[in-house]
Amino acid sequence: MRAPAKRLARVIGLVGSNPTPSAIIEIDHDKGNEMETVQDLTNLIVRESADWQSPPRYYTWTVGCQMNKADTERLESALSQMGFLATTTASDADVIVLNSCVVRQSAEDKVVGTITSLKPLKKAKPTTVLAVMGCMVGPNQQSQLQKTFPYVDVFMQPQQYKPLLDLLGNKLDMDWEGCVGTLAPINPEVTTYVPIIHGCDEMCSFCIIPYKRGREVSRTIDDIVNEIEHLVLRGVREVTLLGQTVDAYGNDFQNKTDLADLLEAVNEISGIDRIRFLTSHPNYMSKRIIDAVASLPKVCEHINIPIQAGSDRVLEQMRRPYTVQKYLSIIDTIRSTIPSVSLSTDIIVGFPGETRTDFEGTLDVLKKVGFDKVHTAAYSPRPGTIASRKLPDDVSKEEKQDRKHLLEDIQQTINSKINETYNGNQYEVLVEGHERGHWKGRTRTDKIVFFDSTAELLGELVTVNIQSTGPWSLKGSLVQN
Ligand code: SF4
User: What number does the ligand 1 atom closest to the CA of 213 have?
Assistant: First the structure.
């Protein structure tokens, strides 16, 4: 039996008369802007549970897409505001959260393996709270999951943090809703993801996401702008606006608000240098959005627009409501409006019924468009999807791998050729951090750039002269401004 939680143990300090842990704003006059110091958040109020360390610690583990990463950051923000400290070791944590992905079998296997591997830890230390969130937890699936993993305390659907926060609030005798303000990440990176639309209304036959994340729900422009303003105070210089169908933003509103309106509003935020958005759907890539990318100075000339297959027959089976011709005409419009644009796409090879001729159609699209980046996946049926129920998985594993490798080889050559055009030219680079002993940043067109400097440049916009290129990155030297 659990020992009863100790009531509010000690109050170290409060801000004003409001006993809510909140960040402190301080003005950094040298830099001429406001900086928010957040490291003191957990010192404002510490509440204890007899079951846990003081202050209590959390550990998060995330697998999957950028949306999952963004969801984890938002939960971490809530936990920090409740007085929890982060730890990098599961065995050192009082609360363990696994954010799951089931888009591919390999991801699901990883999640199941990780949940199972925590069983001995939970047995040895039953006071540890174990939570599983994300795409493994669809609507009405909690009871089945609870039967399979009885040692897990909480299952939460994507973005539905309440069940865990209620449980932790009870243990700490804390009204968490009164403590947790914005869910903007507490210690964000220089470049950070901001979800703007949740869920997906498409029903691509291969995809499990609509069943797990529900219908599209857009956040209001005011809410998004408010979050980005917080992020600027925490050092963020670039935001990537995120959605499964990001260009469908606003379609669920009564008024005519769309992604172009949101880009315009974010472009006005002082302190933000760059704006990107991910992932677009060809059906919603309107001329208004393309014009906004072309005209708004902070919006980067980089668009990810998945085609998935270069055969109309396969696209129909995938329930992707466009033809190859229509897709290519959208690319033409983007290119003629934004001549310096870089384009990336997603492709699935070996979809049920995909013949070698269909696959060659995909290779033709690659050669015609000249994408800067291609994310390729070999089809694997996901239980519960339309494809898994209706379309036999009739392309052999070997053939799928063969097509994937062939496509990747062709794309590598295209990447190399495009990147060579950067050689000898100067580009604005946003410095994101250090990697393998070099500074690492990205151009507006999303090219990774390495260069050397002894100066402290994190978060700075610098100019780099490109001196060598490869298929995946560029190298250069810093141009002294
Ligand atoms: S657009 Fe299609 S592939 Fe993308 S999340 Fe929605 S259903 Fe899945």
Answer: 5
